[in-house]
Write a structure and sequence with these properties.
The complex is a heterodimer of chains A (about 450) and B (about 325). With about 450 residues, chain A is α/β, with parallel strands linked by helices. Chain A contains 14 helices and 17 strands. Chain A has a 6-stranded mixed beta sheet with strand order 1-14-13-17-15-16, sandwiched between helices. A 4-stranded antiparallel beta sheet of chain A has the order 2-8-7-4, with no helix packed on it. In chain A, strand 15 and strand 16 form a beta hairpin. In chain A, helix 1 crosses helix 4 and helix 4 crosses helix 7. The radius of gyration of chain A is 21 Å and the shape is globular. The termini of chain A are far apart. Helix content of chain B is about 60%, strand content about 0%. A two-stranded antiparallel ribbon of chain B has the order 1-2. The longest helix of chain B is centred in the first third of the chain and has 49 residues. Chain B is globular. The chains are: A alpha/beta (about 450), B mainly alpha (about 325).
Chain lengths: ~450, ~325
């Protein structure tokens, strides 16, 4: 079974919510739609307090190329534009809307009948994706239209659909594949057209044999689409690791992944692309799994963007008393929330509730130089050394030791027998060195 | 509710691996060799091992509590392991007060004065052993002969070890290979039982506490080096297999050189370190004045380890040449 070549770990999978059918959440009373649900510049609001908006209406426009449109996920009255906490704990601009029964924008196709044919030109497809505000739905939320428009000089050869879902607990992509398999195949085909490539690989870890079997069957008429099972190995969903696993090619340090000829897109984004191109439906809802060892009703819930995470938790049986940490995303790379009023955004793949026993960090001991962190690092770095340098504020040497290659997967902290907070210190260093490099470029 | 949530950066889960798990794995891996030594060296082995462990733990506790005034570190199991490894490097008829001095040097000088586990440059047990070897050369070099369930301690019958036969060129007096393999020869408490040490090493490999790089590179280097000497002059030098089975080589290669704190972190560096230990060991055994050189070889390479760490980098992902 193929996988990536360096480092990595295999934490307990704990896919508690796997196999639970997608359940539609009822409309909330109010939604909070963040204006920075993507990597890049926050979108510019087009509505004001008191405006009435329809479901699917553009309410904030992309601010520049690396940015994304934001649409209203509900019908109703704009209560206010305010700053709220985003999943990362920062105060960000958001549009807050009081919800009324749905009234959809005109060109949006509501029927769920499969639409296979697409006769649009690549440029038109990318335009529709950009209009629909499609971003990476796996967590990083990079605008999809940017990925589909590789810089001049690069020649994409293969589209890799990232359906590995390597984070423990998470199951939303898995369930989406089981229920929307054909849409995903059509979405893949559309993305191939946009990229002008002749080959696509849907990469799935082999702890999802049902999804692998289903997509293999559905892909039979599409000879250019291959379904590739991969060994369960974290962080296989990392872009560089996935290209390594699928093609055996290493993205050179500092280069864009497309130099290997591969463009990687998350399976959720492929589905969103299908909806945006074939149904004129912008990203206004998504599947979020609510999971955790003490969750009463773990499952995969289809909810509107902007609903509060508290409502999702309530829908999954309420907040168990034992919960001490609420994480947006998986346990390896997800963000711990400061409160449960944070809204769901395009990149929210799951909500993980963690009990107090697991949530607390353990006592930190001296580094015993066992080398576990070096063994586990998928980028071939020396986390113990980088942490020491970070503590000494030695940014110059951190840059020499390739801190900018760190993908923040957390494998180092996970394996450390002394419970050292390696990644915390690596992040500080990466942030500082990144600022220094940008400063140098601007001189 | 709002104020009750813990917030921290990812990752939010941990493998559950810990220092004490690793230390106890090594201690468990040493038990077969300990049992063999209890059989061949009897009471002396029991007394020396117990006193060594007890004094290491006691000194670590006292120094941590009264000199460093820090939280006690004895629960991580590293002091027990140091005590066990120190005892394994001592003859079974060593007076107990000398054992205690060795423990004080190992824990006090080599470990705690650097700041405790993780900060020491040299392997504590070996520092203790070498200190005793230099300070008490006579007591440290009279090894009891093996005798099933020996109840004599200080008055145990002593005799030459295979290494001293090698040193003096009486190769015909070397014991049977099988005896050397199971541990039926004279020597320090824990070093004679080659087969038990190999078993322990396999256990550590399976538990992923150690990797093969250090032991294999040491043993292979010694084998090749002594093999060349043997071919050059068979009447002067012992055969490579005897070298592998005698003295502290197996104990050193599997348990002492692989000490995390004092060995290189990157695999490439570990091989350089292992080859260095192998070469120095053979040089001391064959050309030096001591019959055994494993301890000195490991300590010397311990000293080079920071340098090896600085120059041996792992292969970076997507390295741009």
């Amino acid at each position: 079974m193929r996988t990536f070549s360096m480092g990595g770990i295999h934490p307990p999978e704990n896919k508690i919510s796997a196999g639970k059918a997608i359940e539609q959440m009822p409309l909330p009373a109010q939604v909070t739609i963040l204006l920075n649900q993507h990597l890049g510049a926050p979108a510019l609001p087009l509505v004001q307090r008191g405006d009435r908006v329809k479901t699917g209406q553009l309410i904030a426009k992309a601010a520049g190329y690396v940015s994304a449109n934001i649409h209203s996920s509900v019908t109703g009255k704009v209560l206010k534009l305010d700053e709220v906490y985003d999943p990362g704990g920062y105060r960000r601009q958001a549009v807050i809307i009081e919800v009324e029964p749905d009234e959809w924008v005109e060109d949006l196709v509501l029927s769920s009948t499969l639409k296979r044919e697409c006769t649009l030109s690549p440029e038109d497809i990318i335009q529709k994706i950009q209009d629909g505000g499609v971003v990476g739905m796996g967590g990083a939320s990079f605008p999809t239209h940017v990925k589909l428009s590789p810089p001049p000089g690069s020649k994409p050869e293969v589209l890799i659909v990232n359906a590995v879902e390597c984070e423990p607990y998470l199951s939303s992509d898995h369930q989406l594949m089981l229920e929307k398999g054909m849409e995903i195949i059509v979405g893949t085909k559309i993305m191939m057209m946009a990229l002008k490539v002749q080959r696509a690989v849907i990469a799935i870890e082999n702890n999802k044999p049902d999804a692998i079997g289903l997509l293999e069957r559905l892909a039979i008429p599409y000879s250019q689409i291959e379904v590739m099972p991969l060994a369960v190995h974290y962080p296989q969903g990392g872009e560089k690791q996935l290209i390594d696993a699928v093609l055996g090619r290493h993205v050179p340090s500092g280069a864009l992944p497309v130099v290997t000829g591969a463009v990687v897109l998350n399976v959720g984004s492929v589905f969103a692309t299908y909806e945006a191109v074939q149904k004129n439906k912008p990203v206004i809802d998504r599947v979020v799994c609510v999971t955790g060892k003490s969750v009463k009703k773990p499952g995969n819930y289809l909810c509107r963007i902007g609903i509060s995470i508290q409502e999702l938790i309530d829908f999954a049986g309420g907040m168990p008393d034992s919960v001490a940490k609420v994480i947006s995303g998986g346990p390896m790379m997800g963000k711990a929330l400061i409160n449960t009023q944070v809204p769901v955004s395009k990149g929210t793949s799951g909500i993980l509730l963690m009990d107090s026993k697991e949530a607390l960090r353990k006592k930190v001991y001296n580094c015993i130089r066992c080398g576990n962190c070096i063994e586990a690092c998928p980028m071939g770095l020396e986390p113990y050394l980088l942490m020491n340098l970070s503590e000494l504020s030695d940014w110059e040497n951190m840059e020499k030791e390739c801190i900018m290659d760190c993908i923040e997967c957390g494998c180092c902290s996970y394996v450390c027998p002394s419970n050292r907070p390696l990644l915390d210190h690596l992040r500080v260093g990466k942030f500082k060195v990144g600022a220094i490099i940008r400063g140098r470029k601007n001189q | 509710m709002e104020n009750k949530l813990y917030v921290s950066m990812s990752p939010h889960i941990h493998s559950g691996d810990s220092i004490s798990r690793k230390m106890w794995d090594v201690i468990i891996a040493l038990i077969p060799a300990l049992l063999v030594s209890l059989y061949f060296f009897g009471l002396g082995s029991l007394l020396v091992t117990s006193v060594s462990i007890a004094s290491c733990v006691l000194f670590e506790y006292l120094i941590g509590r009264f000199l460093l005034k820090q939280e006690s570190s004895i629960r991580d199991g590293s002091a027990i392991l140091t005590g066990l490894l120190l005892a394994f490097n001592l003859p079974s008829n060593l007076p107990l007060w000398i054992v205690a001095i060795g423990a004080l040097v190992a824990i006090g000088m080599a470990k705690m004065s650097f700041g405790g586990l993780g900060n020491n440059i040299f392997n504590p047990a070996l520092v203790g052993r070498v200190f005793l070897l230099i300070s008490f050369p006579q007591q440290m070099t009279s090894w009891p002969l093996p005798k099933a369930l020996n109840l004599n301690y200080l008055d145990a019958a002593t005799g030459a070890t295979p290494l001293s036969f090698m040193k003096s060129g009486r190769l015909d007096r070397l014991p049977d290979t099988l005896d050397m393999f199971i541990g039926n020869t004279g020597g320090s408490i824990g070093e004679v039982a080659t087969v038990a040490l190999i078993l322990g090493g396999l256990f550590l490999l399976i538990r992923k506490v150690i990797s093969w790089h250090i032991p294999v590179s040491i043993l292979l280097t010694v084998y090749i080096f002594t093999g060349i000497l043997r071919i050059a002059s068979p009447e002067l030098y012992a055969d490579p297999l005897s070298h592998m089975l005698t003295g502290g080589l197996m104990l050193g290669a599997v348990f002492m050189a692989t000490d995390y704190v004092t060995s290189p972190m990157v695999k490439k560096g570990q091989v350089i370190y292992g080859v260095g230990i192998g070469i120095i060991t053979v040089c001391i055994r064959v050309f030096g004045s001591y019959p055994e050189g494993v301890s000195f070889a490991i300590l010397m390479m311990n000293g080079v380890t920071p340098l090896i760490n600085a120059y041996c980098k792992p292969k970076r992902f997507g390295e741009v040449k």
